[in-house]
Amino acid sequence: MELALQVQIPVCYGTTVLRDKTLVKIKPVLGFHTSRRTNLFSQFTQSCSLYKYSLIAGFSHRITARSDFSRKRRSKVLSPRANDSAPKGFKPKPSNLRKDRRTIEGKESLDPSTSTEYVSTTKKESKFDVEIDKDQEGDDNLETKMMEEISSGRKPLAVARFSQREENGSSSTVDEGINVNSDITNEMSPLGLQKEQLDAIKNEEASLKLRLEMEAKLRKKQMEEERLKQEMQANLRIQEIKRLARETLAKGEKVFCYPEIVTPDQDIEIFLNNTVSSLIGESDILIMGAFNDWRYKSFTVKLNKTNFSGEWWSCQIHVPKEAYKIDFVFFNGKDVYENNDMKDFCISVEGGMSALEFEELLLEEKRRELERLAKEQAERERKAEEQRRIEAEKASSEADRAQAKDEAERRRGILQEVLKKAVKFVDNIWYIEPSEFKGGDMVKLYYNKSVGPLANAKDIWIHGGYNNWKDGLSIVERLDKFEAKDGDWWYADVVVPNRSLVLDWVFADGPPQQATLYDNNVRQDFHAVVPISIPQDLFWAKEEHEIYKKLQNERRLREEEIRAKADKTARIRAETKERTMKTFLLSQKNIVYTDPLDVQAGGLVTVYYNPTNTVLNGKPEVWFRCSFNRWTHLMGLLPPQKMLTADDGLHVKTSVKVPLDAYMMDFVFSEKETDDGVFDNKNGMDYHIPVSGGVTKEPPMHIVHISVEMAPIAKVGGLADVVTSLSRAVQDLNHTVDIILPKYDCLNLSNVKEFDFHRSYLWGGTEIKVWFGKVEGLSVYFLEPQNGLFWAGCIYGCKNDAERFGFFCHAALEFLLQSGSHPDVIHCHDWSSAPVAWLFKDQYMHYGLTKARIVFTIHNLEFGAQLIGKAMAYADKATTVSPTYSREVAGNPVIAPHLYKFHGILNGIDPDMWDPLNDHFLPVSYTSENVVEGKKAAKEALQQKLDLKRADVPMVGIITRLTHQKGIHLIKHAIWRALDRGSQVVLLGSAPDPRIQNDFVNLASQLHSTHNDQARLCLTYDEPLSHLIYAGADFILVPSIFEPCGLTQLTAMRYGSIPIVRKTGGLYDTVFDVEHDKERAQSQGLVPNGFNFEGADAAGVDYAVNRAISAWYESRDWFNSLCKVVMEQDWSWNRPALDYLELYHAARK
């Protein structure tokens, strides 16, 4: 029988001293054991390993104990020795034998975890006798002594190698002897080692000594060869450097480097010939430099003077692996420089990064840095917001406590007056049993109904409360007839509310909501003192705390509601903005689009182009010319790329790698690779696609609007809304926007924040005071000439309006000049600020405002055509307020010569001003998700406000100025048609012409007489009512004869009302008929959203109004879904602002 014991030891290819008889077999096996114990033999093998005669490998050995080992004859075993007779240095240490023994089949053996041997790694097994004795610890001390001998520097033990073979448990023979130090031999003799074994040890030691001497000689020789080699290399290096120095002198140059070819990630030496340098005679010379055009890892190193002939100075620098160029100058550490005649010194680095690869590396590092900074900023903002929240919570809590205290004091004063009136009973009227009671008790309240106003009542009820009706009606009980007492007495069981100081009640002939007759103690109510109650100071302390908790809860609910609404508003706005950007990118899909649609910096983008719809139609080839960042990217213009046919056969395509620092992709198309031939550059605007995720943001532009109107402080028409809303939208895109406005004496300054005097200046023979304020978050400069031109009490309407506004335009440019402002774009509007265009070009651009470009917008060509024509000639770019209106006026003599720079851009509406989710004029706030419920509540509120019939019928709203332009004859006809179809009609508006106003006054009187519950004409201006009409009406009618843009239909859709419009100007561009305009809407990335008609007669109005009202009656579900659709369309300034930015950039190009 064999018992296998695992021992974790390294395998040693040395030799081990073994007994000639062995009863334990050791087998090398793979694996490890968790513990080991070192003995004499392992120390021998360790000594061998120190002399590189042993190779340690990670093996475990299997120790096998034979079942008959105790019966074998033990020859030459180690004799036990008493502790006091141990050889010197080998005294055994105390040990607990129980830790070293295990019982195996009734016999004791070594614990495998405490025995470890280093043996030869030969596959044959080695057998030897092992003395298992109580004095095993002696072996451990022997091992310790021998290790001390080795570590003390004495000659180490060498262990013989054995050639072993396994023959049914027979012992192995020794192939090689071991030479052992004589000092150790004497101590090993008592162990029973045989003489031949000791001789073998001595022989081995001699062989080892010889081998070591040979190795030492070899190492010495190698060191000498290495020294000679280094000396040779140093000499060659010096010779090479001297050669380079001679060549540099011969060329008349000042600098060279060694080695001549510089590669990345190496040390180089730079040499300066100071005899031809501006630093000659200086005691200190330093090099100052950086890598890659001075953009990477700057350095400053002191040079040392060499022992070469002449004035050669040198230093060593390390070239980083990212370098492609070294740039440097020399100086004396102060103010004397050697900079290669102002050209600096440079050395090219071969085999490293290219300049483009280095750019990408820097951009990637910048991207990571920006991400880190963004995270840090977000964390700071989070902490700041948390601190603000804590401070706000603290302030609110203190305010709630103060309010609770005041409220408690108020209630206490009132209750004290009630307590003065309270009694325990009123003789012959009422009393309570028991007379002593407290909160929570059940009492009987008795009432003599015969003495009060309820004497004839069949039923008696008590309606009660406590503490001056603190919680309202909290006690309601029916009284029963009390037969045990004479008279007409009644009683009820009443539970006294907790914390009651006084009970309050009245008697009635029925329960609440049904009683008709009361006994309220002659309007004083009945009050009974609660005899047993808590002390009042304690009561009011608790009362104050309850009030405080209630205030806290109410405040939290309000804040949560506000926060939820704000989050919802932000989410809707972000989603809308994302949809609008997608629509913007797809707006020219019939010509050009990209894959992916959202171009990412650092990515690959494929551009698809359909030349069929462009000037390149029919050309055999199309070439793509591209750059980035408004054509300003460091890479410059990329080489032209020939576009390949796409899979659909209609488009051609090409792919471009977008750099990490791109924020805009710019491109045009041409018919040739060369610069001649036909180009498609989008009518001079070029094609531009925003790039997301770049490390560089677009530099902000500075735009200044010079205008005579601005909402809401100086509003007459749509111009005021455009100036404010466009400016806010552009400012939200991270550009700087200022507005210059006259300071009228009729300004509504309540909407101006931070209003203060700014400065004054002289021009035109008068002082002009400048005031500054914030309007809707915009910076506004108010000009107030002291000549009184704007102290007229109005905006328009003076006989000298042209003179007033001409002076203002000149003063505005003078203000920019004198204040040192240098805007990128000056944007002027309509005839009133048209003079800015020619005053700037003729005068101010030569005085110092050279940077600016002029953009001019026509809001309505009906007024000031001559001034508008002159401004068109001088402006760099011109716009009007819708694409269709731009085509309608293209033939006008003041427009026609300038069509190449004339563009139509739709207006938008302010989504904050017109927002049904946050509109405090509405009874119920709503979004597209609950549009049906919101509009129903608004309609009911509108019907109630205007005293119309409360009915579920179609409602047509009209909100307009009553002028011929707005189609007043069509409005009148539409009112009668809608009434004939059973609809209600609400009109809000007034006429500047008294004749038109009187005409509609008469119409209102007629309608209010004949259709009083169906029609209301409100012939005035009423802002809150306009909001209610937009929300409550099902349809909004806009039958304008001409309409440059129109905001009414856009506002209507914002509130989920369906527009009915005439096809003209901006009405045509924004309203797509549900039956006829599906394809036209789809080309704009939209779906149909209303009803329209052509012509300007009754038949056209009837066609649209009849279809709209029929849809309401016949397809309510479809109609409700249409309301949801139009609410989700974006008619804000999100898209127009992007178009205007493109125009601004085109003006600057």
Question: What characteristics describe this protein?
Answer:
six-stranded mixed sheet; 49 strands; about 35% helix; about 1150 residues; nine-stranded mixed sheet; alpha+beta
Structural write-up:
The protein has 1149 residues and is of the alpha+beta class. It is built from 21 helices and 49 strands. Strands 37-38-39-36-35-40-41-42-43 form a nine-stranded mixed beta sheet, sandwiched between helices. Strands 26, 28, 29, 32, 33 and 34 form a six-stranded mixed beta sheet that branches. Strand 16 (430-433) and strand 17 form a beta hairpin. Helix 8 runs parallel beside helix 9 and helix 9 (835-847) packs parallel to helix 10 (865-874). The model is unreliable at 1-192 (pLDDT under 50).
What is the CA-CA span between the terminal residues? 99 Å
Helix coverage percent: 25-40%
Mean pLDDT, as a whole number?
A: 85
Quaternary class: single chain
Percent of residues in β-strands: 15-25%
What summary fits the major beta sheet?
9 strands, mixed
Radius of gyration: 51 Å
Uncertain ranges: 1-192
Placed side by side, the strands forming the largest sheet appear as 37-38-39-36-35-40-41-42-43
What is the number of helical segments per DSSP (H or I, 4+ residues)?
A: 21
Which structural class best describes the helix and strand composition? alpha+beta
